[in-house]
Amino acid sequence: MSLILQNIAKHVDLTKEEEEFFLSKTETHFYKSKTILLSAGEVSKCTYFVNSGILRSFNINDNIIEHVLHFACEGWWIGDMYSYISEKPGNLFIEVLEEAEVVSISKENHQELYAAIPKLERFFRILAENSLVSHQERLMDNLSLSAEERFEKMCKKYPNLIQKVPQKHLASYIGVTPEFFSKMKARLLKK
Question: Which residues of the chain have pLDDT under 50?
Fold first, then answer.
């Protein structure tokens, strides 16, 4: 069974025919590191599921500073949901950090899947709810935890990412400069 079908099976049961129909509405692509899948100002036409590799979503502010919002590695979903849902230009970039195999689903195909297999609406609702909880938790952490506490929490929650993602992106994700991150990491290693 493919990884994306395993991901769906965690929440809903599909028949063989439904699985085949689902897969017929997806596209799989291989991307090299540093490939930009979506740029700020574009309308997001699909969502992405990562079979292998690592992607990140980020924004660049007026001072040309990157702010990493999300990482996605094997078995995770990523997209600019504002743009995807509203069909308006978004403000996120989605970049491949590590060579990746990515499954995409267009908005049109998404809607066809909902109509043909209503239980997929439940699956994607669960994903949206989990994402909302995760983003709320991250926001609360950013408001109430120190940078060191945020980094330690990230290390516990996503140990694989810490080894694979460049430090400048980890620093951006927890909201500190790369220089501060380097000093903080050195202090934590001495403990």
Answer: none
